[in-house]
Design brief:
By secondary structure, this protein is mainly beta. The chain has one domain: Ureidoglycolate hydrolase (Jelly Rolls). Helices cover 2% and strands 46% of the residues. It has one helix and 14 strands, in the order E-H-E-E-E-E-E-E-E-E-E-E-E-E-E. The strands form four sheets. Strands 1, 8, 9, 11 and 12 form a five-stranded mixed β-sheet that branches. The chain has a five-stranded antiparallel β-sheet with strand order 2-10-7-13-5, with no helix packed on it. Strands 3-4 form a two-stranded antiparallel ribbon. A hairpin with a 4-residue loop joins strand 3 and strand 4. It starts with a strand and ends with a strand.
Length: 160
C-alpha cells in the first residue's frame, strides 16, 4: 500500500485535513494577527466526555511496515497536529464494522498538515515518518473509547 499525498478531498470520508488556509481569516489583536476558524465542533462530549489536549512524542517508524491492526474511537474525534514540522502517515478505513485489509487507505502529510479523525473512523496508531512532537486533542472520559481490530491479512505499507 503506497501512501498518497494528503488532500482535503481524498481524506473527506475519514475526517478533516488541518492546514494553513489561503482565505477566510479575520483580523484580530488590533490587526497584528489573523484568525482562521478551522473546526466548529470536535465532537468530544458524547457519553460524558470532554476535550483533552496532550502531546505525543513519536519516534520515526521504519518503512516498509506491516499494518496488522486498526483502532477506532466511537464517541469522539481524534486530532493530530505536528508541533513544528513532522510528516506522518495516516492509515484509515471507513467507520462501521471492522474493515477488511482491502478497505485501507494511506495518506502522507507534508509536515505542516494535521488531521481530525471523525468519530468511528478506523485508523492505525500514529506513524511518524520523522521523529516529532504532536499536539493531540481527543475525548477523555471515565470509560475507555478504543476498539482494536486485528486484520485477517496484514498489509505492507510502503515508504512514503
Amino acid at each position: 500500500m503506497q501512501p498518497l499525498p494528503l488532500t482535503a478531498v481524498a481524506f473527506e470520508p475519514f475526517g478533516l485535513v488541518l492546514q494553513p488556509p489561503a482565505t477566510g481569516s479575520r483580523a484580530i489583536n488590533a490587526g497584528t494577527a489573523e484568525r482562521f476558524d478551522l473546526v466548529d465542533d470536535l465532537q468530544l462530549h458524547a457519553r460524558g466526555g470532554h476535550a483533552q489536549l496532550a502531546m505525543y512524542r513519536a519516534r520515526a517508524r521504519g518503512f516498509p511496515l506491516e499494518v496488522r491492526e486498526l483502532e477506532r474511537h466511537r464517541w469522539g474525534s481524534q486530532t493530530f497536529v505536528p508541533w513544528g514540522r513532522g510528516r506522518f502517515v495516516v492509515v484509515v478505513a471507513p467507520a462501521g464494522p471492522p474493515p477488511q485489509a482491502n478497505a485501507l487507505r494511506a495518506f502522507v502529510t507534508d509536515g505542516r498538515q494535521g488531521i481530525v479523525l471523525s468519530p468511528g473512523t478506523w485508523h492505525h496508531a500514529l506513524l511518524a515518518v520523522d521523529a516529532a512532537d504532536f499536539l493531540v486533542i481527543e475525548r477523555a472520559a471515565p470509560a475507555v473509547d478504543c476498539d482494536v481490530h486485528a486484520l485477517d491479512t496484514p498489509r505492507t505499507l510502503l515508504p512514503p
